[in-house]
Write a structure and sequence with these properties.
By secondary structure, this protein is an alpha/beta fold. It contains 9 helices and 7 strands, in the order ααβαβαβαβαββααβα. Helix 4 links the parallel strand 2 and strand 3.
C-alpha cells in the first residue's frame, strides 16, 4: 500500500511503526466502521474484528461498510472485504461472536497493541475496560454518539473526565477511579437530544471513529492527548 503522503507527514519510521501495530476492534458499526477505515488507510496491517451483528437497512444512513447490496450479510465479513479493497495485503481476522464478561478472556490478549471498544453494549464495555486494565492492554473506548448532532463537540479524554454523556456516567459507576483514568475515550460534550428513539446522523460516529485513529497517531508521535 502506498503510504507516501503519510510518510511525508509523520516520517517513515513512525509510519512503519503504525503499520506494525496489532489492533483488536470490537464493533464495526457506526463508529467502528470509520475506525477500521482509518486504520487501514494508516497502513495498519494486522486487525482483528469482533462483532456478531448483520447489516440492516437502518445502517445505511451512517455505517460506512453498509450499502444497498449487502443487507443481511455479516458485518465482520463486509468489513473485511472493504479493508482488502483498500489494502490487499492487510490481515483481517474476523470473529463473529457477541463479546461479554464470560468470554472476553477467550478473545482479548496482550498480543494486541490496542483494543478499540466501538460496541454499544454497556456490560461489554465495562468487561473490556476491566479486563484490559488488569491485563495492562491499551484500550480506547467510544462513548455514545446517538442523539447527538454537533460533531464539533466530540472530545478526546479519559473516562474520569467525561461530562454530559449518559453512557459514560453509567460506566463510571461500575469502575474504580484508576480504571477510569486508564482508559482513553472519545465522547461528546453535547447534551443528548430528548427524543425517545436512538436517532443518529452520519458525521458524528464518523468523526468519533477517526478521533480514535487520532489517538493512535498521537501516541505514536508522543503528542499528548
Amino acid at each position: 500500500m502506498n503510504l507516501d503522503r503519510l510518510e511525508k507527514l509523520i516520517g517513515k519510521d513512525n509510519a512503519r511503526y503504525i503499520s506494525s501495530l496489532n489492533i483488536c476492534l470490537i464493533g464495526v458499526g457506526g463508529v467502528g466502521g470509520y475506525t477500521l477505515e482509518g486504520l487501514v488507510r494508516l497502513g495498519v496491517k494486522k486487525i482483528t474484528i469482533i462483532d456478531s451483528d448483520v447489516i440492516d437497512s437502518t445502517n445505511l444512513n451512517r455505517q460506512i461498510i453498509s450499502n444497498s447490496t449487502n443487507i443481511g450479510n455479516l458485518k465482520v465479513e463486509e468489513a473485511r472485504k472493504r479493508a482488502l479493497m483498500i489494502n490487499p495485503s492487510v490481515q483481517v481476522a474476523t470473529i463473529n461472536v457477541f463479546l461479554d464478561k464470560e468470554n472476553v478472556r477467550d478473545y482479548i490478549n496482550d498480543n494486541f497493541d490496542y483494543v478499540i471498544d466501538a460496541c454499544d453494549t454497556l456490560n461489554t464495555k465495562i468487561a473490556l475496560i476491566k479486563y484490559c486494565y488488569n491485563s495492562n492492554i491499551k484500550i480506547i473506548s467510544s462513548m455514545g454518539t446517538a442523539k447527538k448532532i454537533d460533531g464539533t463537540l466530540l472530545k478526546i479524554s479519559t473516562l474520569d473526565k467525561t461530562k454530559y454523556c449518559p453512557l459514560a456516567r453509567k460506566i463510571r459507576k461500575e469502575l474504580s477511579i484508576l480504571e477510569q483514568k486508564y482508559v482513553k475515550v472519545v465522547y461528546s460534550e453535547e447534551k443528548p437530544s430528548s427524543i425517545k428513539e436512538l436517532g443518529s446522523v452520519v458525521y458524528v460516529p464518523a468523526i468519533a471513529g477517526f478521533l480514535i485513529c487520532n489517538i493512535i497517531v498521537k501516541d505514536t508521535l508522543k503528542i499528548g492527548n
